[in-house]
Write a structure and sequence with these properties.
The complex is a heterodimer of chains A (434) and B (399). With 434 residues, chain A is of the alpha/beta class. In chain A, 32% of the residues lie in helices and 18% in strands. Chain A has twelve helices and 17 strands. In chain A, the strands form six sheets. Chain A has a five-stranded parallel β-sheet, covered by helices on one side. Chain A has a four-stranded parallel β-sheet with strand order 8-7-9-10, sandwiched between helices. In chain A, helix 4 packs across helix 10. The two termini of chain A are 15 Å apart. The mean pLDDT of chain A is 91. Chain B has 399 residues and is α/β, with parallel strands linked by helices. Chain B has 22 helices and eight strands. In chain B, helix 3 packs across helix 5, helix 7 runs parallel beside helix 11 and helix 17 crosses helix 19. The longest helix of chain B has 22 residues. The model of chain B has no long low-confidence stretch (mean pLDDT 87). Classes of the chains: A alpha/beta (434), B alpha/beta (399). The interface between A and B is large, with 40 and 38 residues.
Chain lengths: 434, 399
């Protein structure tokens, strides 16, 4: 097979890598088994959110400047500050070309409000989640109404309200709750299961009931200036619909992420996949990479589930198969392994050291930072200890970082995907085989 | 008792991702979606078969739920299985009977091809079919050949011996009765690559039988096909190819997973045609191709997507000089075999297809290319464009 680049996994990292390769004219294929973890994500992108003590980081780049020299095993240290910056700018650009606008606070972090009413630190948020007009309104202590659709069972306004009242930032702010009724979406009573975020998102997408919904929002909001809604303002037309709703109601409307499947995450997924297809990339969604053969430190070919012994070969490969949940890493009773190529795992202590007894341990859960061991340029090591030069590992399969505790999952996925793509692009330009 | 092999539903983590990508649930409130109809309800059905839900019938078996599932649950198989295991179908179903006997009906119709096409196209006939058989008035039908592909091939068989290697062609009902020209194109493409074609005695692959609940019959056909194809393979030790993505999918996966038959004797060597061509092209066996100078939009059928075969078709198409190709974002066309030919599902089927029809229109092509025969019928009925099979385009480039 004459692919320049074969990527296993179409998650955040694999897609960023694929888009970059395809943009530079490389023949790129992504093989993806099952939908990615963006479907379970908040739809905001973290870069570096928290210090080990749990303290929030205001300026992630300044923090990283001091942090990376101390942590040479961290993916950020391997990728380097310059590439991290470039990759995030690239990501923002690509999302916007795919129809999704992201907000960032210059080079600073910002907070967005979660479904539980807590503040979560982020680097990028979708414009319907946080934007500068909203920031101003919050600072001016404008009254807030926390709304939900009557009958939507995946979100509870009272829970949000209780939490919001505890936030120092919202001290002295009037916060109310309310319900939007959709009597016009009449067929819902017939099948209760239809009241999922996805069904509501499609009602919004159709724009059919928009003026009536706007009326209902105005009614439910009372005197509030800012309105919070669970995230279901459309999947395809969301930016137009968000704008229209704000115009119709004269209110500021922001979305909060709710339970999976995440509408906000799906928007990123779609924007990136559209972009990849537009640039001529090939995505094989019904198949799954299931093994491969490394010969003398070079990955020769991979196999997929549907084609048994057929060899798929490319000049370069990227393994972006994710962590334990996505099947990129696998835990046996007393051992952790990378199931596709049996690559070396960073460290694999005995089972009783994998986790902390306290679920919300401030130090984090150790197993989260386990993963594939890689060299300086994200090349992994085969079972016999040789560095595999034509294979790169990106995203959450990597070891040496804790996306949960650091708040760094999105940034690592994007920057390592982009980094690997650049390495491949320059090697292909030089005519290397890897 | 729960049989251990049937517990794939237990891997479901209830993430609902399958339901997001279900084309039926998106377009009708009558179908609760693959998660609920598949893994969720399977627990109840195992406990008490009375708890089966009639909404199962709305599933088209397009398999997009399985493509989406991050946990490897065979959702569509669970639904298909339950559909016929727990519900008792009426004995007398003339429409479903004839619709699923594509080989029987085809062999009758090809005797008087033009006459059948004329009669079926008459408004009054369509009216009565709507009235008595619940076949929607608006639906257009595939036309029949005069004479089958198999009889045409008989005359060609001798000439196939001179080529260097051999391949067995599973032509399926569509090529045999409706679109002989596709089979003829395949023979010329393969011959141009110094590959001789052989066919063997075959029955309908079983896809329409499965869809209409005639599982015993489907199993019978499957056994017949497995037997004849593996014998044929022994003779020429070559590959078995199909030009229908759904036939290929049935031979490889439905036989083993849904019909619980042993198809290991043909599994590895059975391939959808573009995968076979891809491998030959990689070995340097490429026919001389002239520029075709057309602009076309490519639609990837659901079953080929599930088979992981779309990338091979795209690769083959990209090698054809002068083909200005627009690859459409893969969406179900809505017809799902015999589903779109039934009055009770017709509206849903059309609603599912709307998105694809809009994409095609926006691409502004001269032709549409797709691998699946029923997708082609649906697209030709709903758009002004002629639909080609990738093999047709390759054959165009030969001339």
């Amino acid at each position: 097979m004459r692919y320049d680049c074969l990527i296993a996994g179409a998650g955040l990292s694999g897609l960023v890598c694929g888009i970059r390769c395809a943009e530079m004219g490389l023949r790129t294929v992504i093989i993806s088994g099952g939908m990615n973890a963006l479907h379970f994500s908040s739809g905001s992108i973290d870069l570096m959110g928290y210090e080990p003590s749990g303290k929030a980081i205001a300026s992630p780049y300044q923090y990283l400047k001091k942090f990376t020299p101390k942590k040479p095993g961290h993916p950020y240290a391997k990728v380097g500050l310059k590439t991290i910056r470039e990759s995030l700018a690239f990501f923002k650009e690509q999302c916007s070309a795919g129809g999704l606008n992201l907000y960032d606070n210059g080079e600073e972090n910002h907070f967005h409000i979660t479904g539980l009413g807590t503040m979560k630190i982020s680097y990028f948020s979708q414009e319907s989640v946080f934007n500068s007009r909203l920031k101003d309104a919050f600072e001016k202590k404008a009254p807030v109404a926390v709304l939900n659709f009557d009958g939507f069972r995946d979100y509870f306004t009272d829970l949000t309200l209780e939490q919001l009242r505890r936030l120092p930032l919202l001290k002295d702010v009037t916060i109310t709750t309310g319900k939007i009724r959709l009597p016009y979406y009449f067929r819902t009573e017939r099948n209760l299961h239809e009241f999922r975020s996805i069904d509501l998102a499609r009602v919004f997408d159709s724009e059919k009931f928009l003026p009536r919904i706007a009326d209902e929002i105005k009614k439910a909001a009372g005197n509030a200036r800012i309105v919070s809604l669970p995230a279901f303002i459309g999947i395809e037309n969301f930016s137009k619909i968000h704008r229209k709703l704000e115009q119709m109601t004269g209110l500021l409307i922001y979305e909060v992420p709710s339970l999976p499947p995440s509408i906000l995450g799906m928007r990123i997924d779609q924007a990136l996949k559209n972009r990849f297809a537009d640039l001529g990339g090939e995505l094989s969604a019904g198949d799954k990479v299931f093994g491969g053969e490394i010969i003398k430190g070079t990955l020769d070919h991979v196999h997929t589930e549907n084609y048994g012994n057929t060899r798929h070969s490319a000049r370069f490969y990227v393994l972006a198969t994710g962590s334990f949940f996505s099947g990129g890493l696998k835990s046996e009773f007393n051992r952790i392994e990378e199931p596709l190529l049996k690559l070396k795992i960073s460290d694999s202590p005995s089972r009783n050291k994998w986790y902390s007894d306290s679920f919300f341990d401030k130090k984090g859960q150790p197993f989260i930072s386990y993963g594939v061991k890689t060299g300086k340029t994200l090349n992994p090591f085969s079972a016999d200890g040789k560095e595999v030069k034509n294979l790169f590992c990106t995203g959450s399969i990597l070891s040496g970082y804790d996306p949960v505790r650091e708040g760094s999952g999105g940034g690592v996925a994007i920057s390592t995907g982009y980094f690997a793509a650049n390495k491949i692009i320059s090697a292909v330009a030089k005519g290397d085989r890897g | 008792m729960i049989k251990l092999e049937n517990i794939s539903f237990d891997h479901c983590i209830k993430c609902t991702v399958c339901t997001i990508y279900c084309p039926v649930a998106r377009n009708t409130h009558l179908f609760p979606g693959p998660k609920q109809s598949g893994p969720d309800a399977e627990r109840l059905r195992i406990k008490n078969p009375e708890l089966v839900d009639a909404s199962l019938k709305y599933c088209t078996n397009c398999k997009r739920c399985e493509i989406a599932c991050p946990s490897n649950v065979k959702i569509a198989d669970i639904i298909q299985d339950a559909k016929w295991k727990y519900t008792r179908a009426r004995l007398f179903r003339p429409r479903d009977f004839f619709m699923s006997r594509t080989d029987f009906v085809g062999s009758m119709a090809t005797i008087f091809g033009p006459l059948v096409n004329f009669v079926v196209g008459l408004g009054i006939v369509k009216f009565f079919m709507d009235l008595f058989l619940s076949i929607p008035l608006q639906r257009s039908f595939p036309s029949y050949n005069t004479g089958t592909f198999a009889s045409w091939f008989k005359r060609k068989r001798k000439g196939q011996k001179k080529y260097r290697s051999k391949v067995t062609y599973f032509h399926g009902c569509y090529v045999n009765y409706n679109k002989r020209s596709l089979g003829e194109d395949l023979v010329s493409v393969l011959n141009a690559m110094d590959i001789g074609v052989e066919i063997t005695s075959e029955k309908c692959c079983g896809v329409p039988l499965i869809a209409n609940g005639y599982l015993t019959r489907a199993r019978k056909n499957a056994r017949y096909n497995i037997k004849h194809l593996s014998e044929q393979k022994k003779n020429n030790s070559g590959k078995i190819v199909a030009t229908s993505s759904s036939c290929a999918f049935a031979l490889k996966h439905e036989y083993a997973n849904l019909l619980a038959l042993d198809n290991s004797s043909i599994y590895t060597d059975t391939e959808y045609i573009t995968k076979y061509l891809f491998d030959r092209f990689e070995d340097g066996i490429i026919p001389p191709l002239k520029p075709v100078n057309i602009r076309a939009a490519y639609h990837a059928p659901c079953h080929l997507e599930r088979l992981g075969g779309v990338m091979y078709t795209i690769d083959i198409l990209k090698r054809i000089p002068g083909l200005d190709l627009v690859i459409l974002n893969s969406e179900c066309c809505g017809i799902a075999g015999t589903y779109g030919f039934k009055k009770e599902y017709y509206q849903i089927s059309q609603a599912i297809g709307q998105h694809l029809f809009r994409l095609i229109d926006r691409a502004n092509p001269e032709y549409v290319i797709t691998d699946c025969e029923t997708c082609a019928m649906q697209i030709e009925m709903n758009t002004p464009y002629q639909v080609l099979h990738p093999i047709n385009v390759l054959a165009m480039a030969l001339k």
